[in-house]
Design brief:
By secondary structure, this protein is an alpha+beta fold. Helices cover 22% and strands 48% of the residues.
Length: 302
Amino acid sequence: MKNLIVTGLLSAVAATSFAQSKTDVKAIDDLCGCFEVTFNYAETFTNDTQNEYKAGKLNDKAVVELSMPIEKTDKKVVIQHILVAGGHVIKHWREDWTYENANLWTFNGDQTWKKLPAAKPEQVKGTWTQTVWEVDDAPRYQGTSRWVENNNSLYWLNTTDAPLPRREYTKRDDYNVMERTNRLTINGKGYMHEQDNRKIIRKGGKDEVLAYEKGYNNYVKVADSKCDAAKKFWTAEKAAFWKDVVAVWDNKMAKAATLTLTKDVDGKLMYEALDEIEKKNLDGAARKKEIETLMNKYIAVK
């Protein structure tokens, strides 16, 4: 089999022992690259008697997104997304793909995540866990499944709970959990992220479904040159800064059983406060200390 190694931000293949199938590895490789992306969502059925959300016009206006592999090992692939839209370049979300991962977290509503009991090796054999992180590298959602080949289609399918995405929490607060069924399907042009979501009101240990939603995020590969601005944006200094941020998250989640976030401290979201620290151009121990001190204000662990 083949083992993936990293040279800078690009990957090469080495002929050596590798536990995963070639198909799985290639599928995750196919999630990387320069893409034009369209995002479309619509509520399909609703139990909401107070508001009416209607399907809008299909959005065919694409943004450019660089999905950049920043870490590769035999067991893990980390992909950083960089968004180019409206003349701006933005650090977007991050996804980690971990092979046969036994340690999972689940979102429980109201900005709280809980660590699940460790899975047995036979329960995760042959599986890949996708962990999605916010722009400030806070946890968003996590799910485990196998890559499946069926009817000339290659896909990964999982259902998991998550907080409200930005497109929702910026305009409504009438539910607190999004149960996401994510299907990633590789195709000849890129991949489709198809979603079947349930908008849930979770209260007192009970779930009430407010509405159902369909989503299509279509990633179409384009010339690498369209991502030149994104590549220039992700400097060595920026990568080092966010590596320090990720280290704080990793340390806290390794020791905790539950994690609760405060969204706003002193009128600022965490990513806004982190951006201010980044602009100070600190390095070494001073930067790490300031990052951790700030993040402690937003993160409570037990």
